[in-house]
């Protein structure tokens, strides 16, 4: 039982507590916020790590739990690395906030009015930003502000990392938020305009951004979860550009130079996660039928997972005009090449990981080519790109297998290919109907270089091809067997049988040696000695052959081959066409002083030797 004395004590304590709370609330409601100008300077100086000055801080009105603080003459100096002058200058800023949340350590701004503000934002080539103490990938939060007013204010933005700059006039009132001005994206001038709905607390905030110029035209039409909440938004994006790098200067996805693009997509941003949905459009004459990707940023790295489906793709569209001009000049100097000069350096994506499925329904080329379609899954993990498997569909057959580009702890990337050719034919790769046979084999090579051509030009490994049960012109079968008589007099439409062909090219440091290269036909057998230098695709070889039946005219010396893989050149032995040499060949035939005739080769054994791994 509580005594009367205890009851009176409890009432006094309760009254005391209530009095303390009431006094604390009254003190908070009447707090002279203007006395905190030193704290404001210190906090801003700590935030931006630079000098901060202000003329005055005063409270507007003397009582209330939603006070307005007026700041005059605010100046935040540029960090030294960003240049001279001020990063922020504000003639007057009125900030209304809720005082009670301060008791729990949170800050809840409700309204902001700026007049005479000048913002000079800078990002350097390393991505350092003057407006952030530390890099942040999540974007602004919006903080639920319910009223924004901006008058007589300007923003300049200079970005050395993406080579872009803008100078914008800012305005915000009851009709909305506006920014208009001009700028440059890479080397191209653009006009910029942006409009947002009036700022209201806790409401979806629609906005539009338009960038318009001769090299880049881009519109972004979307909505943020809250006003100015760039970290949580959805948008429809349409972009036309002379080059994909102009688009990349805005979206910063690490894209490369291309032919003109016209692309559309939906982008959803939720904190550190971007989702790209319904990516469609054209790159040059290539058509992207559907694409999607999820991009997650974490601790300075990005992970991209998605898929790209091309209805058509021309690899030339994935190079800029400058890149194509460089390739054309290279072609003029060196002539046609089989090994592509495509760059494989992964330095620009050293902070990117992910998995990307790519499917191309139809490949487009200016020249005749056996390749018709392409697919593969690209897995990138800390500067190691694994494509497994690459599947290239041919007019007949497939070329498939894993390709790895590894630049971990390497100055130049290391390229490893292990491709298998199945169910193809000789005619698929440029033969004609009168020279055709099934063709299969593999290429397993490893080398280092900045491009595919450079890496394979220094590679070590094996290239193997086998063929059998085919046909070839009878004239050709005789000539490669050094049988001049039958080669000259054979009917041009007559065919011989290709019993088997086997080529094994053993490659060391880019120099390939035939071991063996043997062609066995119904008329002759030919052994090729020599090899190929992969760096420039030069052939240095000699053909030693023998017919399978007696011949009137047989060459004693081999036929030599030079030129390139794409344009080989055969040379008859010196003096082969002279009268003396012809008489000598006739004499050998009469006297029986000819080399032995060729026997049929064991095709199964040849196939096994060539394809051995």
Automatic annotation (TrEMBL):
Organism: Stakelama marina
TM regions (residue ranges): 12-35
Superkingdom of origin: Bacteria
KW Membrane (keyword) present: yes
Domain AsmA span(s) in chain numbering: 17-134, 278-512
Protein name per its UniProtKB record: AsmA family protein
4Fe-4S among keywords: no
Gene Ontology CC entries for this record: plasma membrane
Entry keyword set: Membrane, Transmembrane, Transmembrane helix
Biological process per Gene Ontology, one example term: regulation of protein targeting to membrane
